[in-house]
Batch of 3 targets.
Target 1
Amino acid sequence: MKKNILLLSVLAGLFLMASCSKTIYFTQDMRQNLTKNYLSIDKIQFYNSKKIVLRRNLSYAETKVARGKINFENGQYVEKIIIPKKTPGVAVGEGKDYINVAFEDGPHRFLKFVLNDKNEYQLSAEKWVQGYGKIKYDTLSYYIEPESSNAVLKVIRNDNYNLQKNTRRLKGRTVSGH
């Protein structure tokens, strides 16, 4: 009997720890709540849910000017840009069903996340071919590697998203002259 209670306690503790993750998926409902309370989306700290890898093939001449990690694979030079899981990013543009998020400084250095069927914002591409998503990043064409295609936006768990931005605390009034 004691073993069963101990086992149930351990399982309950593991379940509780798993449900208390520091980050949660950013949903359309959260975005609507922000809008309703006049909070700007560019003030929200976003994180990617999984590692994002962008790649492009380079000619020999391009290898000298590439700013990412360059590998030699199957007789070709390949530039990779790796955005590790939980990298902080900020919104730099938005539309009704998408948010552009930048994980580094610079013009045109952002990724587009679109609203998916789960009501979350998922990494998007101009087109998908055999699991690879073609995008423009920093004015160049890159491909999102297939294992990155399901990356979604997350935010730190915080109940303040349910509060209004402007809060006043009153100190009260006293009778004057006494």
Note: The chain has a mean pLDDT of 80.
Target 2
Amino acid sequence: MTEPLLQVRDLTLHFYPARRLFRRGPALRAVDGVSFDIAPGETLGLVGESGCGKSSLGKALLNLYRPSSGEVRMQGQPISALSDRQMRPLRRDMQMIFQDPFESLNARHTVGAILEEPLIIHREGDRTSRQKRVAALLDQVGLPQSAQDKYPHEFSGGQRQRIGIARAIALQPKLLICDEAVSALDVSVQAQILNLLLEIQRELGLSMLFISHDISVVQHVSDRIAVMYLGEIVEIGEAQTVRRHPAHPYTQALLAAVPQLGAEQLPVVALEGDMPSPMDMPTGCRFAGRCPHRRPKCEETAPRLESESLHSRAVACHFWREISPQLP
């Protein structure tokens, strides 16, 4: 069996407010006991509403946020306790594509300087070889050579995201974390960027963690899908299984909101209320207050991810076998 490229075990990320007269308020539990693996060449889609902790999780994997507890392993090496200096050699293998293609690029630098910077930091070649690499990167993401002499504000949103992708793959990483990489773009441009990412993944053999609030995007690019709600993963499994037979009520609600052209539309799932505050978690199931299938047990006992080996997925719901569509 192939060793996972990335292993995440019981990862938590809590933020604490400033102390007030020797008292510390309740923690904001952005990520709460998350576990998953990503295999070499695999794309894991991470989906959930805004505020559920997806982006915080992505940054915690790169140590941009220090995890409160748990463990992250990259190619078998524990990295969650490493210092910034110790992390630097590993960052060439783990890169992120950010949501905003303008804010993530230095407006004072030309595109050529932006793409050359990671090569300089990691001491890759001399100036001539770096300039050749920059030219190759621009060609790889579908931009003209003249782009390297221009500034980010001279490009459209889709072109800026291509520059961000070029920067992320400059060091030929093994893992890309795409944090809402297409959510700020028009729908037609989204398709182009998604196709570019898939093409680059095939060329370089990359693994990807694709983070998005839009399950209709995630289901088309992912090998597996993890559904996140209020800091926890409530369902994870093969993309086709999750798409065709969603088990958790929250997954069912996300998919029911997506028009299914040429396929049977899932019944509408009406959710009640809003997502609870991550500073005031419910005692039982975190989704119980919005779930149309809730029962007394749901409000008393928190469910754990329950594995179903036959269809390679796990679900955190006490009654998912009763309420989910039957698997073949």
Note: The radius of gyration is 21 Å.
Target 3
Amino acid sequence: MNFQKTKQIMLVTLKWFFICCLIGIFSGSASAFFLVALEHVTQYRNHNNWIIWFLPIGGLAIGYLYYLYGSKVVKGNNLLLEEYENPQKKIPFIMAPLVLLGTLITHLFGGSAGREGTAVQMGGAIADLCTSIFKLDNSERRTLIILGISAGFASVFGTPLAGALFALEVIFFSSINFRSISLSFLVAYIAYFTVEFWQVKHTLYSIPQVPEMSFTTLFWIVVTSILFGLAALLFSRSTHFWGKLFSRNIKYPPLRPFVGGVILALAIYFIGTTKYIGLGIPEIVNAFSVHNAPYDFLLKILFTGFTLGAGFKGGEVTPLFFVGATLGSALSVVVPLPIALLAGMGFVAVFSGATHTPIACTVMGIELFGMQSGVYIGIACIIAYFFSGSVGIYKSQIVKGPKSILYQSFRRKGLKYF
């Protein structure tokens, strides 16, 4: 009997190890291809700014693609969260090529969007293929969705620890067993090393100077972290506002990104700069050493919320990095803390607030910037998390725990804005 039980455990372990290898390798390879392709379309746009005038045509193409083939996957990341909370139907694999193509078109023609949504959706679609291959039940499907999110996030940002934690924390550890936790870390590292194998490089950041902790330093950390949380709240509300506005006023879905593309192209022309479109990686890097204008983060919120609300594809996280880093950089003019530290704190704190994932964001900050800034990063992520409101960028995300209790008490007191 003991031999049979041991054999069964070994077979189950081998099965899940094999599943992790499949998801990690294929998701990591998909992310590697995506990152290389994204770099190419970005460089082409940077050298041919005239292509921005074709943004409406790109939007129309995305709209028609999703209207004809992607009605079941148009919810994107929210579909993954919904299927985790209430598993019903297998995620159509067409989600992966559609979001990949839609994101590349968005960036090629000058939309303001990120990349994590694309990698996570590709990872989720790839992972759910294992449902039918291995004949998994709904409980096991939940684990697959966690693995897909973990592999996608870890591979696209090069942060395996944060990727594993993000997948677990974004659903607030709901009904998670030890198997899901251990496998999330395993698949994150497999996906991460797969990208490394393909020799795709990630952007490097650094915080060279970290002051000693004091009451004055702590005071300024708290003040700036509250502002980071409010910026996250504004970002989330902006994205949802534009999405509702377009869906309410333009009933035919393919026309939404077309109209949005017309307005975006004109806005870019009249503003006279392209710094607020695309990923904005150069501006993020510069924010660690050069003071940003106080309105840079606001314009990035406006452009990204409008782009995604109109129906273009991509993610929100890299724009959140832009918002946080440029806000921190701008605050360094009046806040007596090193500019790189403020930019780094904002980089992850705004992300923490908008996704309700302070643990993953703290770990991400440590992975990106080093252990020496870990305390400052952790405090910023937690405070921003509590000051960013009850609704994040993922509408289907269910907020639980202390933040849920806090905002329920706010609502009882009539503070519905949060």
Note: The chain has 17 helices and no strands.
